[in-house]
Design brief:
Residues about 1-45, about 555-575 and about 770-775 have low confidence and may be disordered. The longest helix has about 35 residues, at about 715-750. By secondary structure, the chain is of the alpha+beta class. α15 (about 470-480) runs antiparallel to α16 and α18 packs antiparallel against α19 (about 540-555). Helices cover about 45% and strands about 15% of the residues. The protein is elongated and about 105 Å long. An eight-stranded mixed β-sheet has the order 1-8-9-7-10-6-5-4, sandwiched between helices.
Length: about 850
């Protein structure tokens, strides 16, 4: 959506005679400043509306004869005031052929009137110690004069009234402002904003909220609009009956209303017609769009409810807002957002990576069918209420309560916050689910696939950019590509290296959001406290309260606190899902399994997406098999006849596999691994993560008991198991150490396909995959096994295996009677490694060294069946 604001300007020249006259008139006739109150000369009365009580503040209101809404609220001991003028026109009142006209008109209000020159409005407010600016949103345009002394209020109001209907559209001033707008559009254009525009266009069509599709440089049609078109837009929408004026500060409310009336009563009403461009009807479409991303992104969006339903009830929008908060807080890979624009706005689900489609599909089904846990509902509604209540009464208007009341008034809904607060209290899990089922139907959704541009990557290229603008682009792209560790690093660098306080606060806020999503709540709190040490922003304070609430209520990552329920230890945190077949299992096994599910969710930062079906105490012939999880069947089995500790560890181990399968589709990953080496590398990732869970959650030092070459001679079954479990665990630990769980998630989306990447995780982390890597067949694992089979070469097995670059295995023939040997060619990263390998296998009787260039990096072996990988 368009979120435009004007850049700061250099002060223009004053028209001294005019302002001397105005000052004399104001000081001599209008008011006398006395302490913190103003006394105004009596003016004719207008229609006084009942006061509006919001969050302990009393807003006095008056509707002038020309239709303008005047609002005043007192802030004792403030010593200054803020004046806001809001017009009920924004980008949704445009169509695609005049996109940008609302923003251009906002700029032109600073171009001058017959009595106020270009830039003079801002210059006067700045000279008085205040700040003046404006911004355009979808539903409204907002002009503010903040922190102004009380004795200049009449003059500022007079200037605001003058430009409501009195712009001169002097050509040179118009072009000056147009050029500023063009520069601002280019400066504020980002890849993310462009994608959001594409989603709006797909959902809403080319009008209403879909009108703002900019060109490649971020420009709307504003740069080419004819002056007559802009003037007509201004004359239609900039009229008193489409405006609200708010004064918030240390002065009497009635006197403030009279000051507004004094300034604006003579402004003539216009021919205002509160109509909208005809919007396109809702439609379900699917689009594919190339985007500047390093991973594919999928968005599924719906045209949702307006701020209020047709009967005036705000509950539907609020229910979806709660649902979005709960969904996005689960760190399950899907982000949910609901718009806050006044008319019917969109609800969207976002996911990144090859599993995006599956993740969104599962999330949608859950939103439509599963009840939100009551405690999560209460947390979300409390967070919304905190945001509303924490807004300061006045100040820069982005967060001020007085500004929000002005916006709601001009949109015809001043009581919204009061009604919304009451509606929040009435929300129930059933009401939220009912709303989701009503609005989020699969057949009414719009699907947009954002595909990375071919050959264009930004991430995983080493050092961060040093240029601040490039660093900001990098950070945004890392977030949108699902690379949260890289994004966190970039935002941290911005917060440390940029001087602009606002930019630093935004970077710290973004960093906190990322750390929260990664499950690093204490790091998120630190970032937010650092931001608040710079500037007190309500949004930062609200997020800090949410994070601290989660820290206080939630368990630590590795050891959830427990409570006792019916004699069984149960974690204070509970998964939304549990055992699907509790009646078929002993109660203690159900309790134990659901305990592990909750602890695994907390440890891993991923939620279960469905219940687990568990078979416990199954008889089996293999005494070494304690249990298994079958991805093809979604079947979790724990065998009978094992000791309790072993069975408990097996249950935990297989529950981790079930979580892996729900998020990453283990069966498909196995189908995609098309070589023996790729299958072994994938198995190491799968088993290594599960073994890490057992080690950390059961406080079991597994690695001290696992070594590849402990047995002599090599037991191949044990060797492969230790490789999968121990080397796989080291792989996952290295990934987590390098980039937290987000990097482990990346590994699931693009698994290591060479066992050398298991032995050397740095190769996968750095993305070192040249063309040779596609030729792996038996890989580093087989080299390690070959050298480990011989006592003389065993000490060098790991080192030489970690030097493997690629290998090729050629089977001599399919006929069982073929006498031709198989050929295995291995390429090492150096001639020294190849030379050492040749020396170690030269005297082996089970493999035969093929004569080759002794100075090369390749070694070929013939395998006649005496040794097989």
């Amino acid at each position: 959506m368009m979120q435009a604001s004007r850049p700061n300007r250099s002060p223009g020249s004053f028209r001294s005679a005019y302002w001397l006259l105005m000052i004399g008139f104001a000081f001599g006739s209008l008011f006398v400043a006395c302490g913190s109150s103003l006394t105004f000369r009596s003016v004719r009365s207008a229609l006084d509306r009942p006061p509006l009580e919001v969050f302990g503040h009393r807003f006095e209101r008056r509707r002038l004869a020309n239709g303008l809404e005047a609002i005043a609220v007192r802030e004792p001991n403030a010593g200054a005031a803020s004046i806001y003028v809001i017009y009920g026109v924004g980008t949704r009142h445009e169509t695609a052929d005049v996109s940008g006209i609302a923003h251009l008109t906002e700029h032109l209000l600073f171009s001058g009137t017959a009595t106020t020159g270009l830039g003079e409005h801002e210059a006067f407010v700045a000279s008085a110690g205040g700040e003046s600016n404006a911004f355009t949103r979808a539903d409204y345009t907002f002009y503010y004069n903040d922190a102004i002394p009380l004795d200049v209020i009449p003059r500022v109001l007079a200037m605001e009234a003058d430009r409501m209907r009195g712009l001169t559209f002097e050509p040179a001033s118009v072009e000056f402002e147009r050029e500023r707008l063009i520069a601002e559009e280019k400066r504020s254009s980002t890849d993310r904003r462009r994608r959001e525009q594409e989603v709006d266009r797909a959902v809403f069509g080319s009008s209403n909220y879909g009108s703002q599709l900019t060109d490649a440089d971020g420009h709307t049609r504003a740069k080419d609009l004819e002056l007559d078109v802009v003037r007509a837009f201004y004359e239609r929408w900039y009229v008193p009956e489409n405006a609200a004026v708010v004064i918030a500060g240390d002065l009497d409310e009635k006197a403030a209303l009279e000051a507004i009336e004094r300034a604006f009563a003579a402004v003539s009403p216009g021919d205002h017609r509160d109509s909208m461009p005809p919007g396109d009807p809702p439609r379900a479409t699917t689009r594919r769009i190339e985007a500047n991303l390093d991973a594919p992104m999928k968005v599924r969006a719906w045209r949702g409810p307006a701020r209020r339903n047709a009967d005036g009830d705000p509950s539907d929008r609020l229910a979806l807002s709660v649902l979005a908060r709960v969904t996005s807080a689960r760190r399950g890979g899907v982000i949910a957002e609901v718009g806050d624009r006044a008319a019917a706005d969109r609800f969207s689900l976002y996911a990144t990576g090859p599993e995006a489609d599956q993740q969104i599909r599962r999330t949608l089904e859950e939103l439509r069918t599963v009840l939100v846990p009551r405690e999560k509902l209460l947390d979300a509604t409390a967070a919304l209420e905190r945001e509303w209540r924490s807004a300061p009464l006045r100040g820069r208007p982005y967060f001020s309560l007085a500004g929000q009341i002005g916006i709601l008034t001009v949109l015809g809904d001043p009581e919204y916050l009061v009604d919304a607060l009451s509606a929040l209290d009435r929300l129930t899990p059933a009401r939220v689910r009912e709303t989701a089922a009503k609005w989020l139907t699969p057949e009414s959704s719009t699907v947009i696939h954002f595909d990375p541009r071919v050959g264009e990557t930004m991430l995983r290229e080493g050092a961060l950019p040093s240029d601040p603008e490039a660093l900001a682009v990098y950070a945004e792209r890392a977030v949108d590509s699902g690379r949260l560790p890289a994004a966190a690093q970039a935002y941290r660098r911005i917060s440390e290296s940029v001087e602009d306080l606002r930019v630093r606060v935004i970077a710290l806020y973004s960093l906190a959001q990322i750390e929260r999503q990664r499950g690093r709540l204490r790091d998120a709190r630190t970032a937010l406290l650092d931001a608040l040490a710079l500037v007190e922003y309500p949004a930062v304070r609200a997020l800090l309260e949410e994070v601290e609430s989660e820290i206080g209520a939630g368990p630590s990552v590795t050891a959830p606190p427990t409570t006792t329920i019916h004699g069984a230890a149960r974690p204070a945190y509970r998964s939304a899902f549990g055992v699907a077949n509790p009646a078929e299992l002993p109660p203690e096994i159900v309790a134990r399994a659901e305990d592990w599910m909750a602890r695994v969710e907390q440890w891993r930062g991923l939620p279960f997406l469905e219940d687990l079906r568990i078979e416990y105490g199954v008889e089996g012939e293999d005494e070494h098999l304690a249990g298994y999880y079958s991805p093809a069947e979604g079947r979790l089995v724990v065998m009978a006849g094992r000791n309790e500790t072993f069975s408990n560890g097996t249950l935990l181990h297989e529950i981790v596999h079930a979580l892996q399968d729900q998020h990453f589709d283990l069966a498909q990953l196995h189908r995609d691994a098309d070589t023996a080496d790729a299958q072994r590398a994938l198995a190491a990732l799968i088993e290594g993560e599960a073994m890490l869970a057992v080690s950390e959650l059961m406080n079991y030092d597994f690695l001290s008991h696992a070594a590849l070459f402990r047995s002599q001679p090599i037991d191949r079954d044990r060797f492969y198991k230790v490789f999968r479990y121990a080397e796989g665990m080291r792989l996952v630990m290295a990934l987590r150490e390098s980039g937290d769980w987000a990097l482990v998630d990346d590994a699931w989306r693009s698994p290591p396909d060479r066992t050398i990447e298991v032995l050397r995780p740095d190769l996968w982390i750095s993305g070192t995959r040249d063309e040779k890597s596609t030729a792996t067949a038996l890989g580093a694992y087989a080299v390690c096994l070959l050298l480990g089979d011989d006592e003389r070469s065993r000490p060098h097995a790991r080192t030489l295996a970690m030097s493997v670059v690629a290998d090729r295995f050629t089977r001599a023939g399919d006929a069982p009677t073929s006498d031709e040997p198989d050929r295995w060619t291995i390429e090492f990263e150096s001639t020294g490694a190849a030379k050492q390998f040749r020396a170690l296998v030269a005297d082996r009787r089970d493999v035969h060294l093929v004569s080759s260039d002794a100075g090369g990096t390749s070694v070929s072996l013939d395998l006649d069946g005496s040794w097989a990988p």
